[in-house]
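Our consortium's second objective concerns turning raw sequence data into structural hypotheses that experimental partners can test. To show how far this objective has progressed, the report includes one record in full. It was chosen at random from the queue rather than selected for favorable results. The single chain below, 144 residues long, was entered without modification.
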Amino acid sequence: MTLSSPGMLTRADGRRRAARALAMALIVIVVGLELRFHGLGLGLPAFIVKYGGSVLWATMLYMLLVALLPRMSPWQIGGLALAVTVIVEGSRLVHTPWLDSFRLTLTGALLLGRIFSLWNIAAYVVGILIGVWIDRMAMRPASA
């Protein structure tokens, strides 16, 4: 089984891929929250905590998209994930009272962030590439 083109997976393979991706997304969420809330306390540099969180957020998004669209190719999902991350990052340039209020909540900060940064987009690309790599490795035949 390969993931080079969409529709190549059987329904059962798609379900297996979706389940693995969902499990991976949950693991990434736990690691990301731990990094966010305890990274500085563990002595990690602020740079690692800040951009590591962005990398993990994009990896989580990629995995959730795989869980939702398991028959799409990794590169198609990667492109979709990149589009979503750029839109979310660009939304930080939009300021309305209700959106700014939401961004000040923990949920808003974790989902949307607060401040626009091109560096975040670079971190998202890294996270998506990690997601593609994990996805491709998880779906390799056992004999590979």
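The partners drew two points from this record. The mean pLDDT is 90. The helical segments are 11-38, 46-68, 74-91, 97-103, 106-112, 118-138. Both points have been shared with the crystallography group to help prioritize constructs.
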